[in-house]
Amino acid sequence: MSTEAEQDVLPLESSDHKLVAFPLKYIHQSGTLICAHKPKCPPSPVPFHVHDVKATWLETCIQWCRIHENDPKIDRRQRFLSRFEKTIYQEDIELFDKFRSKENLGDLINAAFLLDMPDLATALARYVARSVDGKPIKYISEWMGVPIRSGDEYADAIYGE
């Protein structure tokens, strides 16, 4: 017999074969997990396997959902109309600052898209845009961890090489 706590989570298996309990109260944030969860069926003894998303990123998605659990739900129209806003929560900045390398941010962005979490993807886009907006190319290169190629005509024009 399953306990109440087990019924309040959707068990997920990450791509690195770790079990992650995704709270059902956050399921509205993920189109993928909404499709995986069948509320009228008994809980599955087998966790839903999330291909290409490691446990670290699933847990980070849960942290982000926890930060935003009291936010009003946004419909597709509102999301479309607000897509170019630049505002970002300080809590999001603090969370995303932990993953500043290009690989980590890329993995988290991929997780947001694979889990169909458009509000998280938008927050990540705003974070990156805010971090590089108006900055010189050398700063952006260092911030993203992407070296500037020597012989690149744009880099040469900027650095006068």
TrEMBL record:
Protein's recorded name: Uncharacterized protein
Gene Ontology biological-process entries: ubiquitin-dependent protein catabolic process
Domain of life: Eukaryota
Organism: Steinernema hermaphroditum
